[in-house]
Amino acid sequence: MAMALLPIFVLSLIQTQADFQRQADDRQVDLQLAAERSASSAKAKLDSAQVLLRALSPDAVGPYCAPRLTALVGRLEGYEGLYRISPTGEAVCASGRVDGVRSGVAPAARSTWFQRLRNGEELVVMRAPDGAGYEGALIVATRAERPMGRFDGAMVAVIPFSALQPDVADPALPSGAEAALTDGAGRILTASDPDVFKLSAGDDIAGWVGRARDQGSAVFEAKDAQNQRRDYAGAALAGGDLYALLSAPAPGWLSWARLNPIGTLLLPLGAWLTAFAAVMLLSERIFIRWLDYLERVAAIYAKGRFSVRPLQAMNAPSEIRTMARTLDEMAEAITLRDRELTDALVEKDALMREIHHRVKNNLQIISSLLSMQQRALTDAPAKAALGDTRQRISALALIYRTLYQSNDIRHADAREFLNELVGQLIASEAGRGPVVISSVDADSLHVDPDKLAPLALWLVEAVSNAQKHAFAHSGGELKVRFRVQGETSVLEVEDNGPGAQAGAEVGVGRTLMSAFAKQLRGETEFDTPAGGGTIARMIFATPEALAPVDPADKTPGTAALASR
Fold first, then answer.
1. Per-residue pLDDT tens over the stretch 231-259
2. DSSP assignment of 107-140, as one string?
3. Domain of life of the organism in this record (predicted)?
4. Residue 260: predicted pLDDT
5. Inter-residue contact 470 to 498 (CB < 8 Å)
């Protein structure tokens, strides 16, 4: 919304900038006109002085010349002296001076202004020399001629700069305006504030004189000695000899001259801010708070809690109500689907448990039939073979029983399974031979049935071998250990019997053990401990589906989870 309203504000800024520039240009034009008015006023004084000098030229001789000129200087405002100069540069008549030679104007034979008149110029205006006896004065000299046009000297008036300097109290001038007079070289003759006309960094103001000489006036902007930006305007007073120069502070952002442009800026800015605040308030009231409410409801749905319904949104605008109704329908559909999926999973779980239970029963029936057949046989090797087969089937039946009795029918805990299987194997032979003491030390590991079957069958063969060869005559102690060591696991069966005889043939049991180990990507090895007996060891790859049962089964430095 702010971006939509921004073009209006940008257009206002452009218009305000144009107003700033136009007002600055108008200010410079006003200053230039004031300089031209001041130059016109000073030029009028110079013109009147020229008329006076030409009127006095024929009569500026004789014994009464000096008193008459002195009386004129007293009556006329803005004159310091009047002189009649001979063709040789001597003072023929002077106001207020008995001896014209000491007047400071004459002898003038070598003076620049006198040479210019002798060379044909009708009027010369220049600053009075330092040794002329006048502080800050201007010499205005007109050429005197005889009837045949021959040079006959000059009439000279001395006018103080104060009489020609522009009036800074003019109400038409900007506030803080200062005035000065310069000569044709741009040098300051007099100024109301000399520091204003000294530019910063040693810059020279003489450059504007050339433009004023060509165009009659000139305007420029510069920084004064106090590094303040000011506007300057100058105009020619008398030919190329004298110029009036005005200066005023350049307008700043807080100047009175720019109150109107700032008003044109503040008005659209205020309108933009008001519109933006109104739109934001309206959006917050009508849309944003409802969108936040729906976002919170959606976040609750993302966490799986679909019991919360967006009932408060029923008081919102129609678009929000539509979105809330959509969320409500989605939550209802997800809840219904979850219920159906849960019911399907429960039904599937029950069916799987029933299947496992029936498989276990069938295996037990087969085991019972084999047991009956075993009792009917009289051949000892055949009875032993049927006994081994019955133990293997019982081990498989135990797997299915463990699965349908566990919380998760897809996996079984290796620790619990090994404890039950070893107990079952030892108990099956407890009444037909010497006493065997068994112990199981196993880590907790969830194993799927495909991996659990070869593991169980390997253990059956290992325990059966120990019962047949180690405990056949005197009994003993059987130790079963299962360790999860990261990427590999180790299952050991240790007995304290006499050990394997040297040169004994490898029987069917060991062959089956090697086959079962290969199914688990492992191998079987046999070892004789220092105290006697035999250790059957299977080292195999730890099943990929690791799931701890006991939180304490974490082995430091490995990825496996184990418990003792």
1. 777 777 655 567 777 777 776 544 544 44
2. S-TT-HHHHHHHTT-SEEEEEPPGGGS-SSEEEE
3. Bacteria
4. 54
5. yes
Task: Give the closest residue to 215 by CA, choosing from 197, 199, 233, 232.
Answer: 233
Q: What is the 3-state secondary structure (H, E, C) of 327-365?
A: HHHHHHHHHHHHHHHHHHHHHHHHHHHHHHHHHHHHHHH
Cβ atoms of 310 and 324 within 8 Å: the answer is: yes
| Tokens linked to 341 | 């999926």
Between CA 1 and CA 388 the distance in angstroms is 85
Per DSSP, the three-state class of 250 is coil
Exposed (0-12), middle (13-18) or buried (19+): which is 385, by Cβ within 10 Å?
A: middle
DSSP single-letter state for residue 44: H
Token pair of 290 as six digits: 């409802």
Only one residue has tokens 């103080």, namely 160
Give the amino acid at 452: L
CA distances from 329 to 80, 276, 304, 306 (A): 107, 36, 15, 11
**And the tokens for 548?**
């701890």
- Per-residue pLDDT tens for 13-57? 676 666 666 766 666 677 767 767 777 777 778 788 888 888 887
Could you tell me if 507 and 456 are in contact, meaning their C-beta atoms sit under 8 angstroms apart? Answer: no
Instruction: Give Cβ neighbours of residue 26 (< 8 Å, ≥ 6 apart).
Output: none
151-160 β-sheet, strand order = 91-94, 81-85, 151-160, 137-145, 123-127
- Helices (DSSP H) in 377-448: which residue ranges? 380-405, 414-428
Angstrom distance (rounded) from CA 138 to CA 135: 9
* Bond preceding residue 381 cis, omega within 30 of 0: no
Separate counts of helices (H) and strands (E) for the chain? 12, 17
β-sheet bridge partners, residue 526: 536
Range from 85-99, 227-241, 249-263, 433-447 that averages highest in pLDDT: 433-447
Given a contact cutoff of 8 angstroms between Cβ atoms, the answer to whether 217 and 190 are in contact is no
Beta sheet of 534-541, edge-to-edge order: 436-442, 476-485, 488-495, 534-541, 523-527
Residue whose entry in the numeric block shows the structure tokens 């000096």: 66
**Distance in angstroms (rounded) separating the CA atoms of residues 458 and 199:** 107
Phi-psi sector, 363: left (phi>0), alpha (psi -120 to 50), beta? alpha
Q: Which residue has the tokens 């030679």?
A: 101
**How distant, in Å, are the alpha carbons of 75, 102, 381, 500, 507 from that of 503?**
159, 156, 22, 9, 12
Provide the strand spans (E) within 211-337: 217-223, 229-238, 242-249
For residue 294, give both structure tokens: 């729906």
Asked which of 173-177, 200-204, 295-299, 534-538 is least confident by mean pLDDT, the reply is 200-204
| Residue reference for tokens 């969320």 | 327
Distance between CA atoms of 34 and 233, rounded to whole angstroms? 8
CA–CA separation, 247 and 234 (whole Å): 9
| Whole-number Å distance between alpha carbons of 395 and 405 | 15
Neighbouring C-alpha atoms within 13 Å toward the C-beta of 240: 10
Instruction: Find out whether 471 and 495 touch, Cβ atoms under 8 Å.
Output: yes
CA distances to 359, 518, 542 from 482, in Å: 27, 18, 11
Q: Six-digit token pair at 82?
A: 């009047």
